[in-house]
Automatic annotation (TrEMBL):
SMART domains: PP2C_SIG, REC. PROSITE patterns: RESPONSE_REGULATORY. It comes from the Bacteria. This is Fused response regulator/phosphatase. It holds the Pfam family SpoIIE. Keywords: Hydrolase, Phosphoprotein. The lineage of its organism: Bacteria, Pseudomonadati, Pseudomonadota, Alphaproteobacteria, Rhodobacterales. The keyword Membrane does not apply.
Amino acid sequence: MSVHATHSAAHLQDATPIKRVLVVDDSRVQLRIMSSILRRWHYDVWEASGGQHALDLCAQVRPDLVLSDWMMPGMDGLEFCRRFRAMTRDRYGYFILLTSKSEKGEIVLGLDAGADDFLSKPVNSDELRARINAGARMLAMQRELAATLGTLQKLYDDIDKDLQQARLIQESLVPRRRVKQENGTVSLLLKPCGHVGGDLVGMFSPGRNRLGVYSIDVSGHGITSALVTARMAGYLSAEHFEENMALERRFDQFFALRPPEQVASLLNRRLTNDRGVAEYLTMAYATVDLNSGNVAMVQAGHPPPLLLRADGSHRFIGDGGLPIGLMENARYDRISFRMQPGDRLILYSDGLTECEIQGGQMLEEDGLAQLALATPHRLHDTDYLDDLYWRLCQMRAPGSDYVDDISAAMLEFAPDQPE
């Protein structure tokens, strides 16, 4: 059958979601009856005498609405509907099956094939108009939703772009992963679980063989936590000592390390007095004299640092403490110990110990100790941390994602450590 079309779309309102209608029927009489009704309602109408003919037209016309007979020779309406749904389209097309079938099982077949609605034959014009109006409402809502999703996608893309830039900025907070002193080395590992994270590790040195090293974990995740870590990086700056709260100027000549418990109190006072910040943080912060190996440390709600002795033994240091920014008058106690040449001290966030491993369990402290001891002792600084992280990835539960940032700062007290 030849293709017929009218061009009365000018009579339709621009907002009408249905303008192009395809009628499919192997009966010439039924085609003309249906087409005549639709043209009177000012739709653009195309006619097809069978399923394959209709598919060819769909590739050219992209109809908004299809009215197809179910029972046709060759490709029936059910198969045509399946193929119509499989076609790549820029927007949804409403599909009404014309049928004399009324059994529930047959209706289910039609719905499974992709039909949106059904009309019983012979077709009543009032019912046809009502079904088309229902389809128009559905298409209008679908296209409005598509427009909204498009707007949201653009907003998401813009946010994603900003977050990627924010990640670069956050990475700049840890400009160097390895800092070598005369008698030791500090190495850093930072793996955010998202674009940006709430973990921060770092170190600073106001003088020869004197340094401060810290591991911080801000509560929550995402942008707000990342902003707080940026503030903490400023408070513990390795570049601008006059802004570093862990340092104090002596005799207008040099900077000295404040006691770690005093640093924790200063940071706590700063966060609790800032009413614009609801987040708190945990922290392990240590000052180290690399001439003697003496370490002074504070643990503020952070996981206990792991001390790996050169003789192969190990122990976790600290038993808790209050987080920073949680209570205004929190008290922090100093923990003192001494490192021997070859010892390693690892400060880490709970993203390590709470990582889900195979079997559905968390790594926990014992697992971290085993992981650290399994990592070859011959590896140093960032090579050691990278190998430890690789081993953790091998232990992770299949299909699981990291739900928290993973970070660590490792101090190696080794006067004879190679460059």
